[in-house]
Amino acid sequence: MFKPLPPSLEMVDPNTLLHYTNVFDAMLDAVYVALKNLNVSAAVPVLVTETGWPSYGDRKEEPYASRDNANTYNSNLIKHVVTDKPGTPMRPGAQASVYIYELFNEDLRPGPVSEANWGLFHGNGTPVYLLHVNGTDGFLGNDTTDRTFCIAADDADEKAVQAAMDWACGPGRSDCTAIQPGQGCYQPNDVRSHASFAFNTYYQSQGKAGGSCYFQGAGMVTTTDPSHDSCIFPGSKLYSNVTKSDGANSSTTQTSDSKGSAIWRLRTGREKGFLFILRLLLSGMVAVIMTNSNFWT
User: Fold this and answer.
1) Rounded distance, CA 65 to CA 296, Å?
2) Measured distance CA(283)–CA(96) in Å, rounded
3) Which residues of 233-272 are buried (b: 16+ CB within 10 A; e: fewer)?
4) Percentage with pLDDT > 70 across the chain
5) Which helix (H) or strand (E) holds 98?
6) 284 vs 150, 279, 280, CA distance in Å?
7) Contacts of range 201-208, beta carbons closer than 8 Å, 24 or more positions apart
C-alpha cells in the first residue's frame, strides 16, 4: 500500500541487505537483477504494464477487494511514482514507467467477482472513486474535502434526465420535496436542476456507492458543491446548517468550500483531467499512463 513502515517491519533482502517497505519496489528490483544476470544493459528501460487493485470482490473469498484499498493503493502508487520519484532501493531515482490496471470496469468479465472491478471508472465514465493525490497538477480529483455530489450530466438527453428523475423520486425513494413549487430548490424551474437535486439525494442516501450515480448515463459525479441560494444539497458541508420547515430547504449561512479547492466536473469535456482520459481513448489505449519524466505523455 506504500504506507510508511517502522524499521522492524521492513523486509531485508539477505543477498543485498537492501530494505524494502513495499512489494512493488521489491518486484522491480527482482526484474533488474534478472536483467543483470542476463547481461542486459542497465540502460534498457523497464515498463510496468499492469498494477492496480480491485474495488470490489466476493465478501468471503476476496475481503481485501474494496474501494478504500483500491483508492489507497492507486493514489499512493501515483504519489510514489510521480511525486516522490524515489526509484527503488537498488536503483534510487530511476523509477520505471507504470500503467495502472485498469481504466474501466469490465462488468461482463468472467471469473472471480474482483475480475470485473479493477477500473478507475464505470462503463458510463463516472468514477468508481476519486483518487486522492496532491502535488501532481490534479489527477481525476485532487479532492481534499472528500465531498462528492451527483448531478445531471451535461451531455445527457433531457428526456433521459427526466425519466431518471422520475425513477429517483419514485421507485428510488429520493426525498424530492425540496424541488416542489414554493420549496427551497424549486428554482431554477428546469429539468436538469431538479434532476440534479433528485440524483444527489439518491446518491447520498446510498452512501455514494459505486454506480449509484449512473442513472443510465444521465448522472455524473462532481466535487463542486451544487448548492445555491437557499437550496442546500445533501452532502454539502452547509447541510448541517439547514433548517427544514414544511419540506423547504433554507440556510442561515451561505459559505462554500469550493473556492481554493481543486474542483473537477467529470465527463463535461472542459477540464484537462477529462481531456487526458479522452486522449487515451482516442489513441486506443486502455490504461492510465505515468512516466518518470512527464506524467501526461
Assistant:
1) 28
2) 22
3) bbbbebeeebeeeeebbebeeeeeebeebbbbbbbeeebe
4) 75
5) strand 97-100
6) 29, 9, 6
7) 201/168, 201/174, 201/175, 201/176, 201/233, 201/234, 202/150, 202/168, 202/172, 202/173, 202/174, 203/149, 203/150, 203/235, 204/150, 204/234, 204/235, 205/173, 205/174, 205/234, 208/148, 208/150, 208/235
Residue 145: how many CA atoms within 13 Å on its side-chain side?
19
Beta bridge partners of 70: none
* pLDDT tens profile 40-51: 987 788 899 999
Which H or E run includes 179? Answer: none
Comparing CA positions, the residue from 280, 292, 277, 285 lying closest to residue 97 is 292
Report field, pTM of the whole predicted structure over 0.85: no
Measure the CA–CA gap between 47 and 283, rounded to whole angstroms: 19
Does residue 10 have a cis bond before it (omega within 30 degrees)? Answer: no
Under a CB-based contact definition with an 8 Å cutoff, are residues 31 and 45 in contact?
no
